[in-house]
Amino acid sequence: MIMDRLARALDDRLRLSPLTRRALAKVFPDHWSFMLGEIALYSLVALVLTGVFLTLFFDPSSADRVYHGSYAPLEGTTTSAAYASTMRLSWDVRAGLLIRQTHHWAALIFVAAILVHLVRIFFTGAFRKPREANWLVGVTMLMLALANGFTGYSMPDDLLSGLGLRIIVSVVESIPVVGSRLVSLGLGGEFPSDEMIPRLFVTHVLLVPAALVALVSVHLAMIVRQKHTQFPGPGRTEHNVVGSRLYPSYSLRSLALLAWVLAVLFALGGLVQINPVWLYGPFDPAQATSPAQPDWYVAWGDGALRLFPPWEIRLAGHLVPAPFFPGVVLGGVTFLALYAWPFLERWCTGDRRAHQLLDRPRDHPIRTGVGVTALTFFAVLVVAAGDDIIARLLRVPVYDVLNVLRVMVLVLPLLTGALAVLLARALRRSEATHLGDLTRADLRAARRPARADERTTADEPELPAPDRPGERIELWPDGEQWRWRYRNEPAGVAILGNRKAPTEREAADSARLAYPGVDHVMVPGPPPPPPHPVRAALRRWATTAIGASLLAAALRHRRRRRWGRNGPRPK
Amino acid sequence: MRRPRVAPAPPGVNGRIILSFLVSAAGAIGFAVTYGLGGQTQWEGVCLAVAFAGLAIGLAIWGRRLVPVGGYVEEHEGFPPPPEEQAMVAAVLTAPDSPVRRRGLLAALGLALTALGVAALFPLRSLLPSDRTRPVRAREVTPWGPGVRLLNADGRPLRPGDIPAGSVVTVFPEGGADAGDAPAFAVRLRPERFTRPPSAGHLDGLVVYSLLCTHAGCPVRLYLKGTGRLLCPCHQSSFDLFADAQPVAGPAARRLPGLPIEADADGYLRATGGFTAPPGAGYWSRP
Ligand code: HEM
Ligand code: FES
């Protein structure tokens, strides 16, 4: 009732119905990999919510403060106000520790979700025309997410974060010509400066989140405008999207995902300790923790710093120190390559067509190989960030571990990349649907390079409709309106148009856009509803239940007859 | 009006959804009660997790079992728009009175905007340190200098006898103990074991070096007694104290800068100059 009146009131002023009708009927493809971006989105929601709470208690200042609070070992010591307020949040603000830890976990999962999302976009070729712009927005968001993670990690002014910040400052300082000046500009002095924490704070709670929220909006707006891609399948073409509608199906499922993400984050935040700053102690330029490992998403940089040999360049009285290469060059090349990939690939393949249908990784062995190579390389770097821990666990000298890793970081990516190309080719050339189905002969055949005619199969234009018999579009009046559906009798597929059309023409136009060239037929009434998993399951259960009870009844009847009234009784 | 009919709820589904939402409500209440009783991180986390998991399960069952899943298709208009549409936009933009066509005015506007943009960059300079020291100069200046006494972590001046053989003592400059580039360490070694004379000299085997790793500036805190090696906890560079703190393994490429010292008339240790090189990580203009 109230909703009705509200809706009408809004409609009278904003004319929302036509928009809403289309929006509610928007179709999303049904594939789990499309949830990854949403997990990132919902982690961002959790980050903003928990972050606002923390902001109310955090004191971004490096001024001296005498700590008084529930954590006895530090009682009475002089620390920075930032550290003291983090301690108060953790020990003396009710639910403060829960929110702090949940915030940290959300940051870790946020970056992880972005990364896995990127990997799916990459391996399925979702970045191809027309979605290159969204890929660029995405890479920028990844950088912003890393930046926000790092600034947040550095703010509490504890010993571990101080070490991390010092390393990053040194990496920036290593940039030729401008390094020292950049540091000076950023910190307002030498490390550790008094301006440092206030500036980190403004960056962490205002600048980067604002940019992230703006870019997420652009990202989502572009997805709505361009619609989702989809994996190839029956009834799926370059001209349509097949799946479930936003309302009711996806709204429910997406809300469920939001609740899942929050459930997992709060469970982690409550039960799994993270960044216990009281154990590290306040920052002190003369102290260090050991072992010292950063959060996972900066570990690749840390690992690279460990692996890179002590090579420095002296240029006419100037110095290019060692951290420049693993720090600045590697990071720069990584993100440049990410930004450039869609254009590089287009330049190499010459494929300028728009794509709404996704590749499977096997469809594009070279891309798959490059992706696997890059992933392996970064995975080895992440492992290298724990070289001291590995050495301790294996009881071998840390420099032996280092040398092994130095070789592995160069060799392993090439091996895995080559293997990926081989497997992708084998899968593509054979009948196998899964890796497990591959035979030895398939692998042997995959060793020879792709023939020219084969290279294009993935991007082959679809068969024209007249060569695909058995397909048709059915149109029927539904009250005052019209509906249509796509039907492929031999394949047993029937897919309903996502919304009603006010006229027959409009219904026919939609159908023509979605399935160009497929014949239209008029049918008198609504065909039987599309086979629905719930219904099918119900029917199966009902049949089984009826069958089972009949069987049971029959057995009982027989038993009774055979044993009469004196037969054995069930215990 | 007919709609694609929603299947009547299969038996038990409604019940499971309601149960999930009840569990969720119980979790929320549990959280509120825990909080009210004084708060306890683990319970708070578990209760909230239960609250959200209940919601999630209820909504997921609802979304999977009570509404149609899959089986819909939406047309894709495709890009680019029809040529007529594009032509019409182009016509509007290039109409005779269109601002886009007044090249001269546009150039002037561009000039004004560029000037504004450049001017807007100037305030960025305010981010530099207020005392206007050039960054490179700041890197070379440390609180150490001739006559600065060596203090221990408690702020007491040190005599040579306060540095026992075989252990590393962190030292700070008098009057500048808080500076980030100041920390140093003193260690007593047997002079006959020196394979390379310390560049800053030594006082009967007593040497003082900057504590900051020359790789990326972490304090080199781990002393491996006997070997005379000092290990950096950040990326495991190791420095050989018998060879003038030369890096021997790991990613560091330069020696730790030494600090020349002497004992003053009262027997306290003091520096006779600054570090032999700027402490910490390398940078472009490092001498
Ligand atoms: C702040 C982090 C990000 C958020 C919140 C986010 C969110 C989303 C969401 C909700 C979707 C639709 C569902 C899906 O396809 O998974 C999506 C699609 C997409 N994202 Fe992201 N994303 C983020 C980062 C990235 C990154 C790092 C990239 C790539 C470098 C990227 C590239 C894309 C592309 C190309 C699509 C369209 C995919 C398609 O239609 O198949 N996104 N994003
Ligand atoms: S900072 Fe010492 S090894 Fe990197």
TrEMBL record, chain B:
PROSITE patterns, sorted: RIESKE (PS51296)
Coiled-coil residue spans: none
Domain Rieske: 204-270
Gene3D superfamilies: Rieske [2Fe-2S] iron-sulphur domain
Superkingdom as given in the UniProt entry: Bacteria
Biological role: Iron-sulfur subunit of the cytochrome bc1 complex, an essential component of the respiratory electron transport chain required for ATP synthesis. The bc1 complex catalyzes the oxidation of menaquinol and the reduction of cytochrome c in the respiratory chain. The bc1 complex operates through a Q-cycle mechanism that couples electron transfer to generation of the proton gradient that drives ATP synthesis.
UniProt name for this protein: Cytochrome bc1 complex Rieske iron-sulfur subunit
